[in-house]
Write a structure and sequence with these properties.
Strand content: over 45%
Strand order of the largest sheet: 1-3-4-7-5
Number of helices: 1
Number of domains: 1
CATH topology: OB fold (Dihydrolipoamide Acetyltransferase, E2P)
CATH class: Mainly Beta
CATH superfamily: Nucleic acid-binding proteins
Shape: globular
Length: 145
């Protein structure tokens, strides 16, 4: 059996890198996806879904070095479920309302924004892929920027 989730969104904050006891890098990013639609009365509705993404190894180091808040990314990975519920991790916010955390372990991260582009989208030439098996040290070709 196999499943994959693909997310395209923007980082909600700067990446946070830490290390496992064995010394492997782990970077966590928070990715927001947006959806907008009009109901039958023409009223505009917006929905934002947040994903907590964990990246390991050399990819984690590249993500930590080259991404920042506001940058657009494409994430391919697997959804991690809460072992107690079989769904997303459910929690209670400080204001008393309920929330859910959708957690993903990334296999591939594609940088969709140029280095200086925190708000706009990048051209297809500027998109750079960094896989969990990537041996590249620097994911950007200076000629593309």
């Amino acid at each position: 059996m196999y499943h994959i989730i693909i997310i395209v969104g923007r980082l909600g904050r700067d990446p946070e890198m830490r290390f496992t006891p064995s010394g492997e890098a782990v970077t966590t990013i928070s990715v927001a996806t947006d959806r907008a639609w009009n109901d039958k009365n023409g009223q505009l509705h917006r929905e934002t879904t947040w994903f907590r993404v964990s990246v390991f190894g050399k990819t984690a180091e590249n993500v930590n070095q080259y991404l920042s808040k506001g940058r657009m990314v494409l994430v391919e990975g697997r959804l991690v479920v809460d072992p107690k519920t079989g769904g997303p991790r459910v929690y209670q916010r400080q204001d008393g309302s309920c929330g859910a955390s959708f957690e993903v372990v990334a296999n591939n991260i594609r940088f969709l924004s140029a280095r200086s582009d925190g708000e706009g989208s990048a051209s297809a030439e500027a998109a750079t892929s960094v896989t969990a098996d990537s041996e590249e040290g620097i994911p950007f070709d200076e000629g593309q920027m």
